[in-house]
Specification:
The protein is an alpha+beta fold. It folds into four domains: 104 residues, Immunoglobulin-like, CATH 2.60.40.740; 134 residues; 111 residues, Immunoglobulin-like, CATH 2.60.40.740; 112 residues, Four Helix Bundle (Hemerythrin (Met), subunit A). The chain is built from eight helices and 30 strands.
Length: 595
């Protein structure tokens, strides 16, 4: 009986030990599995695939997903917790797939390296049938946002000529199903090999339109005019934005209203390539200087009759539409006997969506020295018109300038041309009337430095400077000893430094609040050595609290950040902008004293 009891006790101990061993193995074992949202779906449905592991790994490689298109993913989620002293960890890579056709498909093996070893999932079979009447409604918030947001770069012309204007308009298309609350640029394109000019978008007004045949609302975010500076294939880099959106869910609140979930999505306009054509060599005028567009040309003078030593203005002007800032104006051919000053360049140009329009001119000041008639010959200006694909040469009218009164040139009343030789000086008998014949010389009085007024001034000035230097030294010492006052001055200077851009934009709501928000973030970045773009308002609050900043000052700082976000989509008055600017200066000063 005792032996039987001993065997039973031994058996229980063995069972408990084996259970503990198995449990320890399960704790230490690595699990890497693949899970499908369904094994049979219609061709108009989506398939969700999750790859889950219980330990973190490296070099995750998904299967090729033959027979499917990846519409989203991989999105990554991690959960980690401690329960009764035991750590629980889970990491999941998620893909959303759309079938490309009907049939039976295999989702192959995924691999990952954990602890130096490679682990693989088991392949799984999926059957794709004909379209179902009601596709699955298991779309995630990110799925809906992906389908409802599209950033498009509309290019006015894909194959322009060299130096021909090309307009790029960036439009954000938003489905009526979601609501955009805010956005921020992540990567602005650099227009290499282009001369570029931004056209400010003053109001982001939503307009109705269509995208791929479906009704959408769109907002113009950015306009830019480009002038290609070399021929061949030129690439326009994409514009990337982070969009904050509210997406409706299938849940409803107590009153039956739909509940919205906020998420962020990154959208990009995609790269665009222009095939820039060189200007044709056939028919190119000899005086062509690179002007491309449609222009008018003229040479005018402020007067055609004047006296010697008087001045007149000759203006060479090109007006119209084209690359007005990117070519040189022709120079007039003036007689050598006319005194001509360097021209003053003037521009009156506006940039519209279609390109630059206006006029450019060079103003020459001309002063004749002798009486006579002076012709200003006709000059030419050539440009290339991309609409007609032809070169055009314009000629100015010949202008005759008549000098009515003044000294005569030695050759009489001959008309000096552009290459006339130098004229001989005409003797009048009064060439030397400026020489004074009676010099009225007097002996110069000799003065000595020693004992003079200058001597005594230089002697006593250093003595007078000593009390002034003592006064300024004590004043500087008093200022340096005023620790509180110096901190206040330093804080005020710091606030002005970070808010200087915002102050310049007072009255311009969007630009002001963008600059204000950037100033607040730059202050934290400089003061706390943190990247504020990675922190939410809650984390900023937590950091400032740990630094010992007063609660009311933290709340004021966070309230300013909220105002910057709300201002882009809410009407804010100039008074409110001034109040926010003053409040920001005060808050930065207070934070700086506490930090």
């Amino acid at each position: 009986m005792k032996a039987l009891r001993g065997n039973i006790v031994f058996l229980w101990i063995a069972v408990l030990f084996w259970g503990h061993f198995v449990h320890a193995q399960e704790e230490e074992g690595v699990a890497f599995d693949m899970a499908l949202s369904k094994e049979k779906l219609g061709i108009n449905e989506r398939l969700r695939v999750d790859f889950t592991m219980n330990k973190d790994g490296d070099n995750f490689t998904p299967p090729p997903f033959d027979g499917f298109n990846v519409v989203m993913g991989p999105s990554q989620s991690i959960s980690s917790s401690w329960i009764n002293g035991k750590r629980s960890f889970s990491k999941t890579y998620t893909y959303i797939l759309m079938p490309t056709g009907r049939g039976n498909f295999t989702i192959g093996q995924a691999t990952i390296e954990i602890g130096g070893q490679t682990y693989k999932t088991l392949p799984k079979e999926v059957e794709v049938t004909a379209a179902v009447d009601k596709p699955n409604d298991q779309k995630t918030v990110d799925d809906v946002a992906d389908e409802s947001l599209h950033l498009v770069a509309e290019v006015s012309k894909g194959n322009p000529y060299l130096n021909e204007a090309v307009t790029v308009v960036y439009k954000l298309y938003v489905s009526p199903n979601i609501s955009v609350t805010n956005y921020r640029p992540l990567d602005n394109p650099t227009y290499n090999n282009f001369w570029s000019q931004d056209i400010p978008v003053t109001k982001h007004t939503a307009q109705n339109g269509t995208y791929e045949g479906k009704p959408y609302r769109f907002v113009v975010l950015k306009r830019v005019v480009l002038y290609p500076q070399r021929s061949g294939e030129l690439e326009i880099e994409p514009l990337s934005l982070e969009i904050f959106v509210d997406v409706p869910t299938n849940k409803r609140d107590f009153f039956g209203g739909r509940i919205y979930t906020q998420t962020t999505k990154t959208v990009s306009a995609g790269r665009r390539t222009l095939n820039v054509k060189p200007l044709p060599e056939a028919g190119k005028p000899a005086d062509f200087g690179g002007a491309v567009g449609d222009f008018g040309f003229s040479v005018t003078t402020s007067k055609k009759e004047l006296n010697a030593s008087e001045s007149l203005q000759a203006t060479v002007e090109v007006s119209g539409k084209g690359n007005l800032k990117l070519f040189q104006l022709p120079e007039p051919e003036l007689p050598s006997s006319l005194e001509v000053y360097d021209p003053e360049h003037e521009e009156n140009i506006q940039t519209y969506s279609s390109g630059m329009e206006g006029k450019v001119s060079n103003n020459y000041t001309i002063v004749p020295s002798f009486r006579g008639k002076y012709p200003i010959p006709s000059i030419s200006f050539s440009y290339f018109n991309p609409e007609t694909e032809k070169y055009v040469t314009l000629h100015s009218e010949e202008i005759n300038i008549e000098v009515l009164e003044g000294p005569m040139a030695s050759s009489g009343n001959a008309v000096p041309g552009p290459s006339v030789n130098k004229q001989a000086v005409v003797a009048t008998g009064k060439q030397f009337h400026f020489i004074k014949l009676d010099p009225d010389l007097r002996p110069k009085k000799v003065s000595y430095f020693l004992g003079s007024r200058t001597f005594f001034l230089l002697l006593f000035i250093p003595l007078l400077l000593i009390p002034i230097a003592i006064f300024f030294f004590k004043k500087r010492e008093a200022i340096a000893s005023d620790v509180v006052g110096n901190k206040i001055k330093q804080a005020n200077r710091l606030a002005k430094k970070y808010l200087s851009t915002a102050k310049k934009e007072l009255g311009n709501k969007e630009a002001f609040y963008v600059a204000l928000e950037k100033g607040l973030h730059n202050y934290l970045k400089a003061k706390l050595k943190i990247e504020t773009s990675e922190f939410s308002k809650e984390k900023i609050t937590d950091i400032l609290t740990k630094k010992g900043v007063a609660v009311e000052d933290i709340n004021a700082f966070i309230e300013l950040l909220k105002n910057c976000e709300m201002a882009r989509y809410s009407p804010f008055s100039n008074v409110q902008m001034q109040n926010d600017y003053d409040k920001a200066s005060e808050v930065i000063s207070k934070l700086d004293k506490q930090l």
